[in-house]
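User: I'm writing a short methods note and want a consistent example. For D-alanyl carrier protein, I'll paste the sequence; you return only the structure tokens, no commentary, since I'll be parsing the reply automatically.
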Amino acid sequence: MAEITHEELKGRMLDILEDICEDDEVRVRRDEDLFALGLLDSMGAIELLVTIEEEFGVSIAPTEVERDEMNTANLIVHQVEIRL
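Assistant:
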């Protein structure tokens, strides 16, 4: 895979999150807990991990990170970025 910039990664992840959460609030509330906001649930989280693996070739096992390490849009982008 070609090198992806932080801005490209952020844009693609926000598109994915908006699709999974079915709400564009993820774009403006990037530091807020998506679970607390009711935008993401456990099924959505699994869908997100599968999509991340399909889109970026990055595998993140649900047991690999604590929920509070991946509960905001910005933290999710960070977790993908450090694995690329």
